[in-house]
Amino acid sequence: MGHALLSLTRTPLPLGSKGLARWRSRDLLLGLLVLSTAATAAVAVSVLGIPVAPCASVSREVVTFTITADLNGYNGSKIRGGQGPFLSVHTCDTVVMRLANRDVQAHGLAVDFYAANGLEALHGDVVKMQFLAYKTGDFRIFCNTLCSVHSYMQNAKLTVQCSMGQGCV
Questions:
Q1: Are 168 and 89 in contact (CB under 8 A)?
Q2: Residue 85: is the preceding peptide bond cis (ω within 30°)?
Q3: SS3 for 73?
Q4: pLDDT tens column, 98-131
Q5: In angstroms, rounded to a whole number, what is the distance separating the alpha carbons of residues 117 and 102?
Q6: Domain boundaries, the chain
Q7: Does domain 62-161 have CATH number 2.60.40.420?
Q8: For the chain, N or C: smaller number of CB within 10 Å?
């Protein structure tokens, strides 16, 4: 039994053939589809307008917190059963959180929704994160770096309250 070799050769289609015409009509159809989608988006933006940023017309404050991490947790949270600190801001405030590591091991700082990946501070470092508090609610602040007092640094909280006259939901 012999082995059959399959040989493929490419033969260019002559101009005006049905294959080339079909290829061109597909290109034309795809182009029309892309063009109609872009036109629909343009009409929607012109009719509905570009959405306004949630804090565009509100005066903002910068609120700075310093959280100290050491063998007593966040600001001594170990002696409070791992609770705290509890921080509060208003919608549209710019929140600056500074993490000062006063320990020889690394510690982290993360905030659900706003900075879930967080940041890490090595021995003696002071690092900061900054974000716009535009969503109301309670957000857990926690250590995202495994350490010996990790369990005491999981229950801090940031409360974002509705600013007066803003009509928050």
A1: no
A2: yes
A3: strand
A4: 999 999 999 999 999 999 999 999 999 999 999 9
A5: 21
A6: 21-51, 62-161
A7: yes
A8: N
Neighbours of 142 (CB within 10 A): 19
Q: Are 113 and 95 in contact (CB under 8 A)?
A: no
Residue 24 confidence class, pLDDT cut points 50, 70, 90: confident
Measuring CA to CA, which residue among 92, 93, 75 is closest to residue 141?
75
pLDDT tens digits, 61-103: 999 999 999 999 999 999 999 999 999 999 999 999 999 999 9
Instruction: Write out the two tokens for 22.
Output: 């079909």
Q: How far, in Å, are 2, 20, 113, 120 from residue 82 at the CA level? A: 78, 72, 21, 19
Q: Which amino acid is at 7?
A: S
Determine contact, residues 130/95, Cβ cutoff 8 Å. Answer: yes
Confirm if 88 and 56 have CB atoms less than 8 A apart.
no
Cite the beta strand spans of the chain per DSSP E.
62-70, 73-74, 83-90, 93-101, 107-111, 115-121, 126-133, 137-142, 155-161
Place of tokens 């929607």: 44
Assigned token pair, 118: 């967080």
How many whole angstroms separate alpha carbon 83 and alpha carbon 80? 6
If we measure between CA atoms, which residue out of 64, 62, 68, 116 comes closest to residue 92?
Answer: 62
Q: Three-state DSSP class for 48?
A: helix
Residues present in the chain in total: 169
